Amino acid sequence: MDHRAVKQAEKINSSNSPVLQYCGGALSPEMEPPKLLWVKENLPESWSMVFRWMDLSDWLSYRATGDDTRSLCTTVCKWTYLGHAHMQQLNGKDSRNMETCGWDDDFWEEIGLGDLVDGHHAKIGRSVAFPGHPLGSGLTPTAAQARNFCVEEFISISNGLPSSDLLFQELGLVAGTPVGTSLIDAHAGGVGIMESVPESGSEAKENDNEAICHRMALICGTSTCHMAVSRNKLFIPGVWGPFWSVMIPEYWLTEGGQSATGALLDYIIENHAASPRLANRAASLKISMFELLSNTIKTMIDELKSPFLAALTEHIHVLPDFHGNRSPIADPKSKGIVFGLTLETSERQLALLYLATVQGIAYGTRHIVEHCNAHGHKIDTLLACGGLSKNSLYIQEHADILGCPIVLPRESESVLLGAAILGAVASKKYSSLTEAMKALNAAGQVIHPSKNPKVKKYHDAKYRIFRELYEQQLSQRSIMAQALE
């Protein structure tokens, strides 16, 4: 969510480098090159001192193994590395510690970061590997001891008495334990959920390599990532990718996203006058504020004689771009809009604003799905994981607004499952990431869209207004720019 590098992103995007076509046509300020350029321009002393630049997931695996082999996932999705340069190196023997050949040196030179090319890209990665491939000689003795010490200290504070040796055995953290090349957290969620489909009625599709191409994974928490894969590379303006083999081997990844979803709902609630009262009531009832708001919304249906729940927001419309638009518009300068405010400060009014914001986020997802399908995808099923997937109102509104079923996984922590799958593949428990996904992914509840045609008509109308709100913003932005000339 760090958007300090907006100006640097604009500068980079003016370069028209060939690598930009694999990022939806433009780099986001959330990606590494703009952030690196920001550090170089604003913190020159720190820049001169840096030994390595790493993503968090690469840093963790490096600390665990001492092996500075980077993940194809992080380097391609965040650093502009061209992973398809390794299309002939998919088998296990070739894919470990592959020398980097996908960096575009001209790109780094042109944007003012040519020093990152020095030493065969020593600071940003000399070698890469496919996710799940074993790193180095596994967990180093130092890393194993460090982890053991930290947990031992915690247990000591808790007045536990296990010895160091017992603790070591209980956790299984022994030197040499295989460590798999990492994934970005959201992509780990994709690995943990993309094969979580019901068995009944889909057997024919499951034997078809194209079946997975009809799904989109929503990893929804503070922000939301929208993951879809295809057999062929699809260039989609404003949507990140296509990224080859960064999540699922031999598939091209399309990655949409909304920069603030859970964070936006928190903001809407916490900045409303009724928030303190709501928090106190939720605490007394021992439920979350989200659950209390959902309950309030349900009681309002009869009180206001609304034909259905969604219709309560007839007069409130929200454009959820409070932290810019990551996709499909790719406009980090876009702003949020709330249409229909009054002087009312009640919990009921907050409930309506909350519902309208949930709907606005779902319209954003619909925009991403429609945009992807217009450019070659055939998405007809969503799979959701992350904190917001546990919010039944949030999921049902998404199903109704998109008009397609949403599958929830049996495993509630799909990101952690995806990380575990990497370890399982690294330990040779499974021969491939795909095999492990099919063995360990499992479907839970399926949420179906409303069959009421009036609900569809209503959401189609609100979606039209949703799209118009951004167009109006562009017009107003132009008017003000002219006024300041």
From TrEMBL:
Stretches assigned to the Carbohydrate kinase FGGY C-terminal domain: 216-426
A GO MF term: D-ribulokinase activity
GO term, biological process aspect, one: pentose metabolic process
Coiled coil: none
Pfam (any one): FGGY_C
One Gene Ontology CC term in the entry: cytoplasm
Keyword Repeat appears in the UniProt entry: no
InterPro entries reported for this sequence: ATPase_NBD (IPR043129), Carb_kinase_FGGY (IPR000577), FGGY_C (IPR018485), FGGY_RbtK-like (IPR006003)
Family per record: Belongs to the FGGY kinase family.
Name of protein: Carbohydrate kinase FGGY C-terminal domain-containing protein
Organism: Populus deltoides
Lineage, uppermost ranks: Eukaryota, Viridiplantae, Streptophyta, Embryophyta, Tracheophyta
